[in-house]
UniProtKB/TrEMBL annotation:
KW Transferase (keyword) present: no
Name this polypeptide is given: ABC transporter ATP-binding protein
InterPro entries, per database record: AAA+_ATPase, ABC_transporter-like_ATP-bd, ABC_transporter-like_CS, P-loop_NTPase
Organism from which the protein derives: Roseateles agri
Keyword ATP-binding attributed: yes
ABC transporter domain ranges (all copies): 5-234
GO MF assignments: ATP binding
Taxonomy, superkingdom: Bacteria
Short name of one Pfam family: ABC_tran
Keywords, ordered alphabetically: ATP-binding, Cell membrane, Membrane, Nucleotide-binding
PANTHER family: ABC TRANSPORTER ATP-BINDING PROTEIN (PTHR42794:SF2), HEMIN IMPORT ATP-BINDING PROTEIN HMUV (PTHR42794)
Gene3D superfamilies: P-loop containing nucleotide triphosphate hydrolases
Length: 259
């Protein structure tokens, strides 16, 4: 199967500044990829390239083997869904109507088919009992689940998320990533909280000043050397009784105290 997304030496300049430099990455269908790096490393810009919102200054972005920049907007919308850092939703909309917005790219589908897709999306995100609530009455975690239900209803092949766990508590962050991990689509998420990466990601792409510094399984990217070198923090891989693999714990180094 052709890669869901394939970047060939993609570079991006914005306002004369190099934001991404010769990024090459192939993301097969069904892969869950976490994009990490310091602030300003180029994570959001990379997602915008992958969404077709920006065109590379040099290089190419392919979707299923086709030039993403050449695809019409409606065709891209049937293939790629995007969740931004700060999603806006009209507070008076019912949850079901908000989730149904994901069906806009599939306007030609029979109404009964779209209704079934919306039902399934609500159920997947545990929102069936809340479907008649107004969006403005939802808690932060419930709203984020509604956002995910909306993009699931879009039935994309690729789901792009820019810091989807911002402003959520630890339990809600974990629930959000568990929802993503259960999706049988390509999921690419820029994450700020490194400790959550292993919960859903098959691979980690580490960016440093717009370049790929590492692209591998979480355990091979989150090594003490790489983590200390790129984030100036320490990582410890700790075994837990109920986990199949060690859990990565990130901690700032102890300050040097004068005697």
């Amino acid at each position: 199967m052709k890669p869901a997304l394939d970047l060939h030496s993609a570079s991006l300049q914005l306002q004369g500044r190099a934001v991404l430099d010769e990024v090459s990455v192939s993301v097969p269908f069904g892969t869950h990829l976490a994009v990490v790096g310091r602030n300003g490393a180029g994570k959001s810009s990379l997602l915008r390239l992958m969404a077709g919102r920006l065109k590379p200054t040099r290089g190419q972005v392919l979707l299923g083997g086709l030039d993403l920049a050449a695809l019409p907007g409606p065709q891209r919308a049937r293939q790629i869904a995007v969740v931004h850092q700060h999603e806006q939703a009209h507070g008076q909309l019912r949850v079901r109507d908000y989730v149904a917005l994901g069906r806009i790219p599939h306007a030609a589908a029979p109404p009964c088919e779209s209704a079934q897709v919306v039902d399934a999306s609500l159920a997947h995100c545990r929102l069936t009992a809340l479907q008649d609530r107004r969006v403005g009455t939802l808690s932060g975690g419930e709203l984020q689940r509604a956002v995910i239900a909306r993009v699931i209803a879009q039935q994309p092949r690729v789901l792009l998320l820019d810091e989807p766990t911002n402003h959520l508590d630890l339990r809600t962050r974990a629930d959000m990533l568990d929802l993503l991990a259960a999706l049988d689509v390509t999921v690419i998420a820029a994450l700020h909280e490194l400790s959550l990466v292993q919960r859903f990601a098959h691979r980690v792409l580490l960016l440093d000043a717009g370049r790929v510094a590492a692209d591998d399984a979480p355990a091979r990217v989150f090594t003490p050397e790489l983590v200390r070198g790129h984030f100036d923090i320490d990582v410890f891989h700790l075994p837990l009784p109920d986990r199949a693999r060690p859990v990565a714990v990130f901690e700032a180094p102890e300050p040097v105290r004068s005697s």
